[in-house]
Amino acid sequence: MKRRSLGELTAIIIAVLFVLLMLVVPLISVLTNALSKGLDFFVKAISTSHVISALGLTIGTMIVTVLITGVFGVAAAYCIGKFQFKGKSILTTLIDIPFTVSPVIAGLALIMTFGRMGWFHPYIEAINNYFNLDIRIVFAVPGVILATVFVTFPFIYREIIPVLFSQGKDEEEAAAMMGASGWTIFRRITFPAIKWPFLYGIILCSARALGEFGAVAAVSKARGQTFTLPLEIDALYMSGSENGAVSAFAVSSLLVGMALIMLVIRSIVEKKG
Amino acid sequence: MRFTALKKHTPIPGFGLTLGITISMVSIFVLIPLASVLYFGTTLSWMEFWHIITMPNVLYAFATSIGTSFIAALMNVIFGVLLAWVIVRYEFTGKSLINGLIEIPFALPTAVAGITLSKLYSDQGLIGAWLSQWGIHASYSHIGIVVALVFVGIPFVVRTVQPVLEDFDSTYEEAAYMLGSSTFDLYRRVIFPELKPAILTGFGLAFARGIGEYGSVIYISGNSLREHTQIVSYVIMQKLNYADYAGATAVAIVLLVISFLVMLTINAMHIHQSKRGGA
Question: Does domain B45-278 have CATH number 1.10.10.10?
């Protein structure tokens, strides 16, 4: 093995120290804080009715979000990857908007659309009066889902599109010439090519959906009903008590555990893909 | 991008259907809600708008957000390039582990990162106690905001620079070395110019992320008006909680404009870069 130069050694040491101090220590400190009052306290903290309701809503929201962004991702990637059309570059710019918008603004946007001030509110009222319903969007579960969809909207599309670009469209064109239907072409040619990036995108989107805070915080105010896990963590931490803070870390470790599982699955998928 | 017909002729079916789904969904889930903010903004008069966005707390918030995001993005560029360099160029035990650990900020939801960093960097925390020996109080100050933004921004820079370094053609480097250029000259004249577009893109991404960041910052910042540690997203959320929709909208529109300008700059650099690459 060759001898390292002084510069090389310094660079490696600084890089490793940076990763340890800035990234690993915070991750570990979530766990040590969570367990600082013992295992019994930990178990109690993560099994309160608020946490269980938040866990259910978080997972439900994640599933619906992935369904919506998944359908969008495949359709948009097919359309943009396989066809040339006017206004394509504008469309791709518009799809990327959620990446640049602050999550709090996403929440504000939903309030300004569906809330009391929003232009859509009279229509919801009309529907509710006519059918004798009580549909609410913001400050209710649909708002939580819409907020999460907004911030994760381009994730799956982004993962699929480079593969579709590099695949080209010769195979699809040949199949179409020989009379294959659109569905057959998609099922037999396009989908097998994008299978792994699609799965990869689903995992990325799920991990992000689990942890979204700012956008959901703007449109969800009822603890125990419309709170997701990140909001429950916020409520516990802001309660100001020592027990509240430790409980917040206990619930955090639950969330981090789920996210880490996602990342491990992701690295497996990455190797397969 | 070719502006020929509406659709260039191809026998592949499914154009109308997928375009319809794409446009409808992007409109329903993204464009219409955002347009509602802009629409509500137009109901404010210029005087009202100007009055809201020039209130001292709003101006301080913009100064804090832009300033801390800039410093954090700069630090991310320094450490991000170093990390990418070490991971691509050097061999050492635990390298693939270090590479994987770069993803930690993606695994820690922003609120979790926020409370953890706030605790770690407080005067009683592991790192904060050590820093306070030198009189540095990180939590509840601008330093704390920068720490949080460095945490959330570092993967953006590493993952932007890494692929460029991997594709880097080392023949130029060898040639320069053979021709007797000094190590410093080698970095300055050969390596840096090649990496510059990626570094600028990484800087832009980290900066854009910092400007809009909320969850990871609000716990460590302390949100004090007097200390100027409120960030723009916090001010918008505060106005929302007081049902001050006009105020929230006006501040949000300014923040949107700044974010779009940053993004446009990044895209312009990309186009410049790909043109150069295609030549």
Answer: no
d(CA A92, CA A72): 13
Beta bridge partners of A85: B7
Residue whose C-alpha is closest to residue A15's, from B127, B255, B157: B157
**pLDDT tens digits, one per residue of B191-242:** 888 888 889 989 999 999 999 999 999 999 999 998 899 999 999 999 999 9
Residue entry with tokens 């593969």: A163
- Interface predicted TM-score (ipTM): 0.90
Domains of chain A by residue range: 1-34, 39-272
pTM of the model: 0.91
The fold adopted by the segment(s) A39-272 is MetI-like fold (1.10.3720)
Q: Write b or e for each residue in B111-146: b if 16 or more Cβ atoms lie within 10 A of its Cβ, otherwise e.
A: bbbbbbbbbbbbeebbbbeebbeeeeebbbbbbbbb
Q: Does the CB of A242 have a partner CB in chain B at under 8 Å?
A: no
* Interchain CB distance below 8 Å, B11 and A75: no
Give the Cα separation of A39 and A27 in Å (integer): 19
Q: In which element (H, E) is residue B268 found? A: helix B245-278
Of B12, B107, B240, the CB nearest to A259: B107
How close does chain A come to B10, measured CA to CA in Å?
A: 7
